[in-house]
Design goal:
The chain is an alpha/beta fold. 35% of the residues lie in helices and 14% in strands. The chain has an 11-stranded mixed β-sheet with strand order 1-3-2-6-8-7-14-15-11-9-10, with helices on both faces. The radius of gyration is 21 Å and the shape is globular. The chain starts with 8 loop residues before the first helix and ends in a 15-residue tail after the last helix.
Length: 497
Protein backbone atom coordinates (compact mmCIF):
# COMPACT_ATOMS: atom_id res chain seq x y z
CA UNK A 1 0.00 0.00 0.00
CA UNK A 2 1.26 3.47 -0.89
CA UNK A 3 2.25 5.46 2.16
CA UNK A 4 2.58 9.21 2.64
CA UNK A 5 6.36 8.98 2.30
CA UNK A 6 5.92 7.56 -1.21
CA UNK A 7 4.18 10.69 -2.47
CA UNK A 8 6.14 12.99 -4.71
CA UNK A 9 7.24 16.23 -3.07
CA UNK A 10 4.73 18.15 -5.18
CA UNK A 11 1.87 15.83 -4.27
CA UNK A 12 2.72 16.02 -0.57
CA UNK A 13 3.11 19.81 -0.58
CA UNK A 14 -0.23 20.24 -2.34
CA UNK A 15 -2.00 18.01 0.19
CA UNK A 16 -0.36 19.85 3.10
CA UNK A 17 -1.52 23.18 1.66
CA UNK A 18 -5.05 21.81 1.24
CA UNK A 19 -4.97 20.49 4.82
CA UNK A 20 -5.61 16.96 3.58
CA UNK A 21 -2.20 15.76 4.82
CA UNK A 22 -0.50 16.91 7.97
CA UNK A 23 3.18 17.75 7.97
CA UNK A 24 3.40 15.67 11.12
CA UNK A 25 1.72 12.74 9.37
CA UNK A 26 4.19 12.91 6.49
CA UNK A 27 7.13 13.19 8.88
CA UNK A 28 6.06 10.14 10.89
CA UNK A 29 5.66 8.15 7.67
CA UNK A 30 9.24 9.06 6.67
CA UNK A 31 10.53 8.15 10.14
CA UNK A 32 8.84 4.75 9.97
CA UNK A 33 10.41 4.14 6.54
CA UNK A 34 13.85 5.11 7.85
CA UNK A 35 13.57 2.83 10.86
CA UNK A 36 12.38 -0.04 8.68
CA UNK A 37 14.85 0.16 5.80
CA UNK A 38 17.88 2.12 6.93
CA UNK A 39 19.55 -0.86 8.66
CA UNK A 40 19.85 -2.56 5.26
CA UNK A 41 21.43 0.39 3.44
CA UNK A 42 22.79 2.93 5.97
CA UNK A 43 21.64 6.03 4.11
CA UNK A 44 20.59 8.23 7.06
CA UNK A 45 23.42 8.53 9.58
CA UNK A 46 22.20 11.15 12.07
CA UNK A 47 18.63 12.17 12.85
CA UNK A 48 16.91 15.24 14.26
CA UNK A 49 13.46 13.83 14.98
CA UNK A 50 12.63 15.94 18.03
CA UNK A 51 13.22 19.27 16.30
CA UNK A 52 11.62 17.95 13.09
CA UNK A 53 8.44 17.11 15.02
CA UNK A 54 8.36 20.58 16.51
CA UNK A 55 8.70 22.14 13.06
CA UNK A 56 6.02 19.87 11.58
CA UNK A 57 3.63 20.83 14.38
CA UNK A 58 4.28 24.52 13.75
CA UNK A 59 3.58 24.10 10.02
CA UNK A 60 0.34 22.24 10.72
CA UNK A 61 -0.72 25.00 13.10
CA UNK A 62 0.07 27.66 10.49
CA UNK A 63 -1.86 25.72 7.82
CA UNK A 64 -4.86 25.42 10.13
CA UNK A 65 -4.88 29.21 10.57
CA UNK A 66 -4.69 29.78 6.83
CA UNK A 67 -1.26 31.37 7.01
CA UNK A 68 1.02 31.47 3.97
CA UNK A 69 3.34 28.46 3.77
CA UNK A 70 6.79 28.24 2.21
CA UNK A 71 7.37 26.47 -1.14
CA UNK A 72 8.55 23.24 0.53
CA UNK A 73 6.63 23.65 3.81
CA UNK A 74 6.30 20.39 5.69
CA UNK A 75 8.53 18.36 3.37
CA UNK A 76 11.24 16.31 5.15
CA UNK A 77 14.67 16.91 3.62
CA UNK A 78 17.83 14.83 3.92
CA UNK A 79 20.97 16.97 4.23
CA UNK A 80 24.28 15.59 3.02
CA UNK A 81 26.79 15.14 5.85
CA UNK A 82 29.20 17.58 4.20
CA UNK A 83 26.77 20.43 4.93
CA UNK A 84 26.71 22.15 8.33
CA UNK A 85 23.51 21.80 10.35
CA UNK A 86 23.15 23.76 13.58
CA UNK A 87 22.79 21.46 16.57
CA UNK A 88 23.02 18.30 14.47
CA UNK A 89 26.15 16.18 14.19
CA UNK A 90 28.09 16.93 11.02
CA UNK A 91 31.16 14.73 10.50
CA UNK A 92 32.08 15.16 6.80
CA UNK A 93 32.68 11.39 6.97
CA UNK A 94 35.92 12.01 8.90
CA UNK A 95 36.93 10.66 12.31
CA UNK A 96 38.59 14.04 12.91
CA UNK A 97 35.08 15.51 13.07
CA UNK A 98 33.30 12.48 14.52
CA UNK A 99 31.79 14.53 17.38
CA UNK A 100 31.44 17.85 15.55
CA UNK A 101 28.15 19.71 16.10
CA UNK A 102 28.04 23.04 14.21
CA UNK A 103 26.69 26.13 15.94
CA UNK A 104 25.17 27.47 12.71
CA UNK A 105 23.52 26.21 9.53
CA UNK A 106 25.36 26.88 6.30
CA UNK A 107 23.57 28.94 3.66
CA UNK A 108 22.03 26.01 1.77
CA UNK A 109 20.50 24.59 4.96
CA UNK A 110 19.23 28.02 5.96
CA UNK A 111 17.54 28.31 2.57
CA UNK A 112 15.88 24.91 2.99
CA UNK A 113 14.56 25.83 6.42
CA UNK A 114 13.42 29.27 5.20
CA UNK A 115 11.41 27.54 2.48
CA UNK A 116 9.62 25.47 5.11
CA UNK A 117 11.65 22.30 4.63
CA UNK A 118 12.09 20.06 7.67
CA UNK A 119 15.62 18.74 8.19
CA UNK A 120 14.99 15.15 9.24
CA UNK A 121 18.63 14.03 9.32
CA UNK A 122 22.01 13.73 7.64
CA UNK A 123 22.82 11.47 4.70
CA UNK A 124 26.01 9.47 4.39
CA UNK A 125 28.99 10.55 2.29
CA UNK A 126 32.57 9.41 1.72
CA UNK A 127 35.21 11.21 3.76
CA UNK A 128 35.17 14.89 2.73
CA UNK A 129 33.30 13.78 -0.40
CA UNK A 130 36.45 12.15 -1.79
CA UNK A 131 35.57 9.23 -4.03
CA UNK A 132 32.41 8.01 -5.69
CA UNK A 133 31.82 5.14 -3.25
CA UNK A 134 29.90 6.14 -0.13
CA UNK A 135 31.89 4.63 2.74
CA UNK A 136 33.91 6.12 5.57
CA UNK A 137 35.48 5.42 8.95
CA UNK A 138 32.74 7.11 10.98
CA UNK A 139 29.47 5.67 9.72
CA UNK A 140 30.61 2.90 7.38
CA UNK A 141 29.31 2.00 3.94
CA UNK A 142 26.02 2.80 2.22
CA UNK A 143 24.47 0.04 0.13
CA UNK A 144 22.59 0.34 -3.13
CA UNK A 145 18.79 0.13 -2.66
CA UNK A 146 18.54 -2.36 -5.54
CA UNK A 147 21.24 -4.59 -4.03
CA UNK A 148 22.78 -3.54 -0.69
CA UNK A 149 25.96 -5.44 -1.55
CA UNK A 150 26.62 -3.00 -4.36
CA UNK A 151 27.78 0.60 -4.34
CA UNK A 152 25.40 3.55 -4.20
CA UNK A 153 28.20 5.63 -5.79
CA UNK A 154 28.93 9.01 -4.27
CA UNK A 155 29.64 11.30 -2.83
CA UNK A 156 25.92 12.01 -2.36
CA UNK A 157 25.18 8.31 -1.99
CA UNK A 158 23.23 8.56 1.24
CA UNK A 159 20.92 11.18 -0.26
CA UNK A 160 20.28 9.07 -3.36
CA UNK A 161 19.46 5.95 -1.35
CA UNK A 162 17.20 7.85 1.05
CA UNK A 163 15.24 9.19 -1.92
CA UNK A 164 15.01 5.89 -3.77
CA UNK A 165 13.61 4.13 -0.70
CA UNK A 166 11.09 6.83 0.25
CA UNK A 167 12.87 7.90 3.43
CA UNK A 168 12.67 11.53 2.26
CA UNK A 169 11.00 13.29 -0.71
CA UNK A 170 13.88 15.75 -1.16
CA UNK A 171 17.61 15.78 -0.41
CA UNK A 172 20.68 17.93 -0.88
CA UNK A 173 23.90 16.97 -2.58
CA UNK A 174 27.09 18.39 -4.02
CA UNK A 175 29.08 17.67 -7.15
CA UNK A 176 32.69 17.98 -8.29
CA UNK A 177 33.32 14.92 -10.44
CA UNK A 178 29.71 13.76 -10.54
CA UNK A 179 28.89 13.47 -6.85
CA UNK A 180 25.23 14.30 -7.51
CA UNK A 181 24.93 12.62 -10.89
CA UNK A 182 26.76 9.35 -10.11
CA UNK A 183 24.61 8.23 -7.15
CA UNK A 184 21.47 9.39 -8.94
CA UNK A 185 22.39 7.06 -11.80
CA UNK A 186 23.21 4.10 -9.54
CA UNK A 187 20.06 4.48 -7.42
CA UNK A 188 17.40 5.40 -9.96
CA UNK A 189 16.65 8.98 -8.89
CA UNK A 190 17.31 12.47 -10.28
CA UNK A 191 20.41 14.53 -9.48
CA UNK A 192 21.19 17.97 -10.88
CA UNK A 193 24.52 19.75 -11.16
CA UNK A 194 23.62 23.43 -11.62
CA UNK A 195 25.70 26.15 -13.23
CA UNK A 196 28.40 27.19 -10.72
CA UNK A 197 27.14 30.05 -8.57
CA UNK A 198 23.44 29.34 -9.12
CA UNK A 199 23.26 27.67 -5.70
CA UNK A 200 25.67 29.87 -3.72
CA UNK A 201 28.11 28.41 -1.23
CA UNK A 202 30.19 30.21 1.35
CA UNK A 203 32.33 27.13 2.03
CA UNK A 204 34.57 26.78 -1.04
CA UNK A 205 38.11 27.75 -0.05
CA UNK A 206 38.97 28.39 -3.71
CA UNK A 207 36.00 30.65 -4.27
CA UNK A 208 36.61 31.23 -7.99
CA UNK A 209 36.95 27.54 -8.84
CA UNK A 210 33.94 26.21 -10.73
CA UNK A 211 34.58 22.53 -9.94
CA UNK A 212 32.50 22.09 -6.78
CA UNK A 213 28.81 23.01 -6.62
CA UNK A 214 25.83 22.22 -4.40
CA UNK A 215 22.52 21.12 -5.85
CA UNK A 216 19.19 19.33 -5.41
CA UNK A 217 18.22 15.66 -5.59
CA UNK A 218 14.73 14.18 -5.87
CA UNK A 219 12.70 11.34 -7.34
CA UNK A 220 11.28 13.40 -10.22
CA UNK A 221 12.41 16.40 -12.23
CA UNK A 222 9.53 18.68 -11.10
CA UNK A 223 10.29 17.83 -7.46
CA UNK A 224 13.95 18.64 -8.08
CA UNK A 225 13.04 21.97 -9.69
CA UNK A 226 10.94 22.82 -6.62
CA UNK A 227 13.90 22.26 -4.30
CA UNK A 228 16.26 24.13 -6.65
CA UNK A 229 13.96 27.15 -6.59
CA UNK A 230 14.49 27.37 -2.83
CA UNK A 231 18.26 26.92 -3.09
CA UNK A 232 19.09 29.57 -5.73
CA UNK A 233 20.27 33.03 -4.85
CA UNK A 234 22.66 35.93 -5.42
CA UNK A 235 24.54 35.54 -2.13
CA UNK A 236 27.71 37.70 -2.27
CA UNK A 237 29.58 35.18 -0.10
CA UNK A 238 30.05 33.15 -3.29
CA UNK A 239 32.27 34.91 -5.87
CA UNK A 240 30.62 32.87 -8.64
CA UNK A 241 27.12 34.07 -7.72
CA UNK A 242 27.54 36.89 -10.21
CA UNK A 243 24.93 39.62 -9.91
CA UNK A 244 24.04 43.08 -11.15
CA UNK A 245 24.10 45.73 -8.47
CA UNK A 246 20.62 46.59 -7.30
CA UNK A 247 18.95 43.80 -9.23
CA UNK A 248 17.92 40.27 -8.18
CA UNK A 249 19.26 38.12 -11.01
CA UNK A 250 18.06 34.73 -9.76
CA UNK A 251 14.44 34.30 -8.72
CA UNK A 252 12.55 31.22 -7.55
CA UNK A 253 10.08 31.70 -10.39
CA UNK A 254 12.86 31.20 -12.94
CA UNK A 255 13.03 27.52 -12.03
CA UNK A 256 9.60 26.55 -10.70
CA UNK A 257 7.13 25.85 -12.10
CA UNK A 258 8.90 24.57 -15.18
CA UNK A 259 7.97 26.02 -18.56
CA UNK A 260 6.64 23.33 -20.94
CA UNK A 261 9.11 22.49 -23.70
CA UNK A 262 8.58 20.73 -27.02
CA UNK A 263 11.22 18.02 -27.46
CA UNK A 264 10.72 18.10 -31.22
CA UNK A 265 12.28 21.58 -31.27
CA UNK A 266 15.63 20.39 -29.90
CA UNK A 267 18.90 19.52 -31.63
CA UNK A 268 20.62 16.77 -29.65
CA UNK A 269 24.09 15.23 -29.75
CA UNK A 270 24.59 11.70 -28.39
CA UNK A 271 27.92 10.26 -27.24
CA UNK A 272 28.76 7.24 -25.07
CA UNK A 273 32.17 8.58 -24.01
CA UNK A 274 32.85 12.23 -24.99
CA UNK A 275 35.62 10.70 -27.08
CA UNK A 276 37.78 9.73 -24.08
CA UNK A 277 35.84 8.31 -21.09
CA UNK A 278 36.48 4.61 -20.28
CA UNK A 279 32.83 3.59 -20.70
CA UNK A 280 32.07 -0.09 -20.12
CA UNK A 281 30.93 -1.99 -23.22
CA UNK A 282 27.78 -3.04 -21.40
CA UNK A 283 26.89 0.59 -20.66
CA UNK A 284 27.63 1.66 -24.24
CA UNK A 285 25.21 -0.96 -25.51
CA UNK A 286 22.52 -0.07 -22.99
CA UNK A 287 22.89 3.62 -23.86
CA UNK A 288 22.49 2.86 -27.56
CA UNK A 289 19.44 0.69 -26.88
CA UNK A 290 17.71 3.15 -24.57
CA UNK A 291 18.28 6.23 -26.74
CA UNK A 292 17.25 4.21 -29.78
CA UNK A 293 13.76 4.08 -28.29
CA UNK A 294 13.30 7.85 -28.25
CA UNK A 295 15.95 9.70 -30.26
CA UNK A 296 13.44 10.10 -33.08
CA UNK A 297 11.40 12.60 -31.01
CA UNK A 298 14.02 15.32 -31.37
CA UNK A 299 14.32 17.68 -34.32
CA UNK A 300 17.80 16.32 -34.84
CA UNK A 301 19.76 13.59 -33.04
CA UNK A 302 23.37 13.11 -34.15
CA UNK A 303 26.16 10.92 -32.85
CA UNK A 304 28.60 13.69 -32.00
CA UNK A 305 30.75 15.02 -29.17
CA UNK A 306 32.56 18.23 -28.32
CA UNK A 307 36.33 17.98 -28.34
CA UNK A 308 37.35 17.17 -24.75
CA UNK A 309 41.10 17.05 -25.34
CA UNK A 310 43.04 17.70 -22.14
CA UNK A 311 40.12 16.94 -19.82
CA UNK A 312 41.90 14.17 -17.91
CA UNK A 313 44.99 16.29 -17.30
CA UNK A 314 43.13 19.48 -16.42
CA UNK A 315 40.73 17.81 -13.99
CA UNK A 316 43.46 15.83 -12.24
CA UNK A 317 45.55 18.94 -11.58
CA UNK A 318 42.71 21.29 -10.63
CA UNK A 319 41.08 18.68 -8.40
CA UNK A 320 44.38 18.07 -6.61
CA UNK A 321 44.84 21.82 -6.07
CA UNK A 322 41.45 21.89 -4.38
CA UNK A 323 42.50 19.07 -2.07
CA UNK A 324 45.67 20.92 -1.18
CA UNK A 325 43.64 23.96 -0.19
CA UNK A 326 41.24 21.94 1.96
CA UNK A 327 43.25 19.05 3.37
CA UNK A 328 47.03 19.58 3.23
CA UNK A 329 47.27 20.46 6.91
CA UNK A 330 45.25 17.39 7.95
CA UNK A 331 47.49 15.07 5.95
CA UNK A 332 50.59 16.71 7.44
CA UNK A 333 49.51 16.63 11.08
CA UNK A 334 46.85 13.88 11.38
CA UNK A 335 47.71 11.47 8.60
CA UNK A 336 46.60 8.34 10.47
CA UNK A 337 43.09 9.81 10.75
CA UNK A 338 42.77 10.57 7.04
CA UNK A 339 41.58 8.08 4.41
CA UNK A 340 43.45 6.91 1.30
CA UNK A 341 41.53 8.98 -1.28
CA UNK A 342 42.33 12.25 0.46
CA UNK A 343 45.99 11.30 0.96
CA UNK A 344 46.38 10.31 -2.70
CA UNK A 345 44.97 13.63 -3.91
CA UNK A 346 47.06 15.73 -1.53
CA UNK A 347 50.26 13.90 -2.42
CA UNK A 348 49.47 14.19 -6.11
CA UNK A 349 48.91 17.93 -5.67
CA UNK A 350 52.28 18.34 -3.95
CA UNK A 351 53.91 16.87 -7.04
CA UNK A 352 52.56 19.52 -9.40
CA UNK A 353 54.36 22.77 -10.22
CA UNK A 354 52.97 26.23 -10.81
CA UNK A 355 53.54 25.56 -14.50
CA UNK A 356 51.33 22.45 -14.25
CA UNK A 357 48.55 24.45 -12.64
CA UNK A 358 48.84 27.16 -15.29
CA UNK A 359 48.68 24.54 -18.05
CA UNK A 360 45.59 22.97 -16.46
CA UNK A 361 43.86 26.34 -16.46
CA UNK A 362 44.75 26.88 -20.11
CA UNK A 363 43.43 23.43 -21.03
CA UNK A 364 40.20 24.03 -19.15
CA UNK A 365 39.65 27.39 -20.83
CA UNK A 366 40.33 25.96 -24.30
CA UNK A 367 37.90 23.10 -23.62
CA UNK A 368 35.26 25.60 -22.46
CA UNK A 369 35.57 27.60 -25.68
CA UNK A 370 35.29 24.49 -27.85
CA UNK A 371 32.11 23.59 -25.97
CA UNK A 372 30.58 26.98 -26.74
CA UNK A 373 31.19 26.44 -30.45
CA UNK A 374 29.65 22.97 -30.18
CA UNK A 375 26.52 24.36 -28.53
CA UNK A 376 26.01 26.74 -31.44
CA UNK A 377 24.95 23.62 -33.34
CA UNK A 378 23.25 21.63 -30.54
CA UNK A 379 20.87 22.37 -27.68
CA UNK A 380 21.62 19.32 -25.52
CA UNK A 381 24.12 16.48 -25.18
CA UNK A 382 23.02 13.00 -24.08
CA UNK A 383 25.48 10.53 -22.55
CA UNK A 384 25.42 7.73 -20.00
CA UNK A 385 25.60 9.31 -16.55
CA UNK A 386 28.38 6.98 -15.39
CA UNK A 387 30.82 4.62 -17.09
CA UNK A 388 29.90 1.33 -15.37
CA UNK A 389 27.05 -0.66 -13.84
CA UNK A 390 27.15 -0.71 -10.01
CA UNK A 391 29.81 -2.95 -8.49
CA UNK A 392 30.27 -4.14 -4.88
CA UNK A 393 30.87 -1.34 -2.38
CA UNK A 394 33.76 -3.41 -1.02
CA UNK A 395 35.67 -2.27 -4.13
CA UNK A 396 37.01 1.15 -3.16
CA UNK A 397 37.02 2.21 -6.80
CA UNK A 398 37.11 0.42 -10.21
CA UNK A 399 40.76 -0.29 -10.94
CA UNK A 400 39.84 -1.65 -14.38
CA UNK A 401 37.00 -1.40 -16.87
CA UNK A 402 36.62 -4.09 -19.54
CA UNK A 403 40.07 -5.38 -18.62
CA UNK A 404 41.82 -2.02 -19.02
CA UNK A 405 43.32 -0.28 -16.00
CA UNK A 406 41.91 3.08 -14.98
CA UNK A 407 44.31 6.02 -14.69
CA UNK A 408 43.33 6.97 -11.13
CA UNK A 409 40.70 6.37 -8.48
CA UNK A 410 38.47 8.97 -10.18
CA UNK A 411 39.16 8.16 -13.86
CA UNK A 412 35.93 6.13 -14.03
CA UNK A 413 34.06 9.42 -13.44
CA UNK A 414 35.22 10.94 -16.73
CA UNK A 415 31.70 11.22 -18.17
CA UNK A 416 30.88 13.54 -15.29
CA UNK A 417 34.04 15.63 -15.06
CA UNK A 418 34.02 16.26 -18.80
CA UNK A 419 30.97 18.42 -18.00
CA UNK A 420 32.32 19.84 -14.74
CA UNK A 421 35.28 21.50 -16.45
CA UNK A 422 33.37 23.82 -18.84
CA UNK A 423 30.79 24.58 -16.13
CA UNK A 424 27.66 23.51 -17.98
CA UNK A 425 24.55 22.33 -16.10
CA UNK A 426 23.80 18.60 -16.22
CA UNK A 427 21.16 16.23 -14.89
CA UNK A 428 21.12 12.48 -14.33
CA UNK A 429 17.73 11.06 -15.28
CA UNK A 430 16.76 7.44 -14.51
CA UNK A 431 15.88 5.51 -17.68
CA UNK A 432 14.91 1.97 -16.68
CA UNK A 433 17.55 -0.61 -15.81
CA UNK A 434 20.66 -2.02 -17.45
CA UNK A 435 21.13 -5.69 -18.32
CA UNK A 436 22.27 -6.46 -14.76
CA UNK A 437 18.93 -5.23 -13.41
CA UNK A 438 20.48 -2.10 -11.91
CA UNK A 439 19.29 1.46 -12.60
CA UNK A 440 20.59 3.17 -15.73
CA UNK A 441 21.13 6.92 -15.61
CA UNK A 442 21.04 9.18 -18.65
CA UNK A 443 23.13 12.35 -18.39
CA UNK A 444 21.59 15.35 -20.14
CA UNK A 445 23.86 18.37 -20.54
CA UNK A 446 22.54 21.84 -21.26
CA UNK A 447 24.08 24.98 -22.71
CA UNK A 448 26.00 27.57 -20.72
CA UNK A 449 23.58 29.02 -18.16
CA UNK A 450 20.74 26.93 -19.55
CA UNK A 451 19.61 25.43 -16.24
CA UNK A 452 15.90 26.22 -16.64
CA UNK A 453 15.79 25.01 -20.24
CA UNK A 454 17.64 21.81 -19.32
CA UNK A 455 15.22 21.04 -16.49
CA UNK A 456 12.24 21.68 -18.77
CA UNK A 457 13.67 19.31 -21.38
CA UNK A 458 14.41 16.65 -18.75
CA UNK A 459 10.88 16.94 -17.36
CA UNK A 460 9.38 16.53 -20.81
CA UNK A 461 11.54 13.51 -21.53
CA UNK A 462 10.81 12.00 -18.09
CA UNK A 463 7.05 12.33 -18.66
CA UNK A 464 7.31 10.70 -22.08
CA UNK A 465 9.49 7.80 -20.88
CA UNK A 466 7.32 7.05 -17.83
CA UNK A 467 4.76 5.14 -19.91
CA UNK A 468 7.27 2.49 -21.07
CA UNK A 469 8.55 -0.07 -18.56
CA UNK A 470 11.87 -0.13 -20.42
CA UNK A 471 12.49 3.54 -19.73
CA UNK A 472 10.42 4.43 -16.65
CA UNK A 473 12.09 5.21 -13.32
CA UNK A 474 12.80 1.88 -11.60
CA UNK A 475 11.82 1.28 -7.97
CA UNK A 476 13.66 -0.94 -5.48
CA UNK A 477 11.95 -3.91 -3.83
CA UNK A 478 11.22 -2.46 -0.39
CA UNK A 479 9.98 -5.74 1.09
CA UNK A 480 13.18 -7.43 0.07
CA UNK A 481 15.20 -4.59 1.57
CA UNK A 482 13.28 -4.82 4.83
CA UNK A 483 14.16 -8.50 5.05
CA UNK A 484 17.85 -7.94 4.24
CA UNK A 485 20.48 -8.36 6.98
CA UNK A 486 21.90 -5.15 8.45
CA UNK A 487 24.66 -3.79 6.25
CA UNK A 488 26.66 -3.06 9.40
CA UNK A 489 27.23 -6.80 9.79
CA UNK A 490 29.06 -6.97 6.45
CA UNK A 491 32.84 -7.52 6.45
CA UNK A 492 34.72 -4.28 5.86
CA UNK A 493 31.68 -2.12 6.66
CA UNK A 494 33.65 0.50 8.58
CA UNK A 495 36.67 2.15 6.98
CA UNK A 496 38.32 1.47 3.67
CA UNK A 497 39.10 -2.25 3.72
Amino acid sequence: MREACDLTALEARKLIGEKRLGAGELLESCIRRIERLNPAVNAIVATDYARARQQAAAIDAAAAKGEALGPIAGLPVGIKDLEDTAGLRTTYGSPIFADHVPAEDERLVRAVRAGGGIVIGKTNTPEFGAGANTRNSVYGATGNPFDPRKSAAGSSGGSAVALATGMVPLASGSDTGGSLRNPAAFCGIVGFRPTPGLVPSEKRLLGWSNLSVAGPMARTVPDLALLLSVMVGDDPADPLATTIHGRNVRAQSDFFPLTPLDLSSLRVALTPDFGFAPTERHIREVFAGKTGLFRHVFARADDATPDCSGADEAFAVLRAVGFLAAHLEKVKTRRTEVGPNVIVNVEEGLGYTAADVARAGVLQTALYRRWQLFFEEYDLILTPAITISPRPWSELYPSEIDGRKTRSYFHWLALAYAVTLPGHPAISLPVGCDRAGMPFGLQIVGPRGGDAMLLAAAAALEAMLASDARTARPAPDLERLAASPPIAASPGFIGFG
